[in-house]
Design goal:
α2 packs across α5 and α3 packs across α5. The strands form 2 sheets. This protein has a two-stranded parallel sheet. The protein is mainly alpha-helical. The chain has 6 helices and 4 strands, in the order ααβαββαααβ. It is globular, with a radius of gyration of 15 Å. The chain starts with a helix and ends in a 6-residue tail after the last strand.
Length: about 130
């Protein structure tokens, strides 16, 4: 969700954990929270915890590229860089990544032990 929605929810007194992709990652091998989140998502997918049945989301995920800083930290290519290369903003992929990030960091590790799988279903055919 964007900042405007986040700010409005705060005004309404809703308790919410913000996600700032540019924020410094708590895991030292990632340059920011967005990169850390995408690596978490990759882990979920590789472990079979997510069943991908949305071609649009899958296409966005396939466009995500990594790069490395000189100190070895991993980053995801920025949305500005993606736009310069003619790649649309990965809004669906970002939403899925943030959901996984929140499961792992805000709901807790007990969720990771659950036998449930996440099924990402397309909500539209657009």
């Amino acid at each position: 969700m964007g900042y405007v929605v986040y700010a409005r929810l705060l005004e309404l007194g809703v308790s919410i954990n913000p996600f700032d992709g540019a924020e410094r990652s708590l895991a030292k091998e990632y340059g920011n929270t967005r990169a850390w989140g995408y690596y978490m998502l990759n882990e979920y997918i590789n472990e079979g915890r997510i069943i991908m049945d949305s071609p649009m989301t899958e296409a966005e995920l396939l466009e995500i590229r990594i790069k490395y800083k000189s100190n070895g930290e991993r980053l995801i290519v920025s949305k500005d860089e993606m736009r310069k290369n003619g790649i649309h903003s990965p809004d669906r992929a970002d939403s899925l990544m943030m959901a996984v990030f929140c499961i792992k960091n805000f709901i807790g590790e007990k969720q990771m032990e659950a036998p449930h799988k996440i099924i990402r279903r397309s909500v539209s055919k657009f």
